[in-house]
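Q: What changes when adenosine-5'-triphosphate is included in the input?
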Amino acid sequence: MLTSAPKGTKDILPDEIYKWYYVEEKFREMAERFGFREIRIPVFEHTELFQRGVGDTTDIVQKEMYTFNDKAGRSLTLRPEGTAGVVRSYIQNGMSSWPQPVKLFYNITAYRYENVQKGRYREFHQFGAELFGAADPGADAEIISFLHLYFMELGIKNLKLNINSIGCPACREKYNRILKDFLRTKLDRLCETCRDRFNRNPMRILDCKVETCQNELTDVPALLDYICDDCREHFEKLKEKLAIMEIPYSVDKRIVRGLDYYTRTVFEFVSENIGSQGTVCGGGRYDGLVEACGGNPTPGIGFALGVERLLLEMESQNIEIPKPEGPDIFIGYIGEKAQRLAEIITLKLRAAGIRCEKDIMGRSVKAQMKYANKINARFVVILGDDEVESGKAELKNMATGETKDVHIDTIVDRLLKYKQGNKNE
Ligand code: ATP
Ligand code: MG
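A: The predicted holo structure follows.
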């Protein structure tokens, strides 16, 4: 117990963190290009926020939340997603009086008590964005084009964009009756959860992951065929905009998404590789959410992207993420005087922005060289009594094997020039 992390959690070790930096930096940079600004929200919120904001009838709220009482008896929950917290912050901070639309992005951990498997964990990471204040399909198109461009610049090819419209509450009321008529004769073949959903929120059944339930749904009537004229026009305009921007998509009448307050547009980017955990990113419009959480009626649309699934997808497509290089230079030494000189030079190099390593293990010169090799140092200098006396040393380029006699005073400048040259290449 003591020496293993809780089920469903993972360390991200130094040898793989560069992959995370890479997708995070690209995401931040892309968000900024699209005019989104970062928001950081708390890891826990009042449990009620998620009951309201994610929805009482969702799997997340019914089965997957980490809920606890604090010492004052408040019920708190670790965030299972980001949207509810961002909506809470939007209301609390009066963002409706900011210049509209309000465009926010985030990079968070999220917590769900899930069946752990590849691409499904109990602590995981999401990138997300939310756009408040714009009901126009132009906002939907902007959110989708953001993701399209992000995946394109990462070099990801196999992601398929599926879109659907689940209409407004009025369309859904009509549809729920039709759906219940269809399901009534199949009830005893559905799973227990779905039988419960039948009364509470029948549309959730469409999202059930149990195979026998999915088998019963092959001829299910699609909500898209029943949405009202306004919702249809909204959807048609979105499709037009995607076509103009040459963003390929398919209409998938089966997408309903896991969350309760979605209206109109819903979409997913689905991998052809990962299998049942293939949804890398999901999102949609939630025009009723801000009001449901206690704010003024405010249209909104957003998405959340699973970072673990994104990295799995990149791996399965053999997309290379540039590996970080080793230190620029290793300063070795033998003897006390040389050690002092090495300490001074090391600090000077580091102050100049150069990645520099030096022995602090009391190792022999031979062992220091071995270590310099292991950590992939680009240059190596070894200092001894002779070097201290003459002020000169041999600078070895480990990649080419080339050596040069240099004045020790010039090492900082040489390394700086070398790095500059590399950047200009
Ligand atoms: P799924 O249908 O796979 O359970 P979801 O509909 O519950 O996904 P969302 O709540 O929409 O997922 O979250 C958005 C994204 O976050 C998902 O598309 C996925 O990439 C990622 N995600 C969700 N749950 C997990 C998890 N338990 N582990 C890792 N990533 C997850
Ligand atoms: Mg889920």
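Observations recorded in class: The chain has a mean pLDDT of 94.
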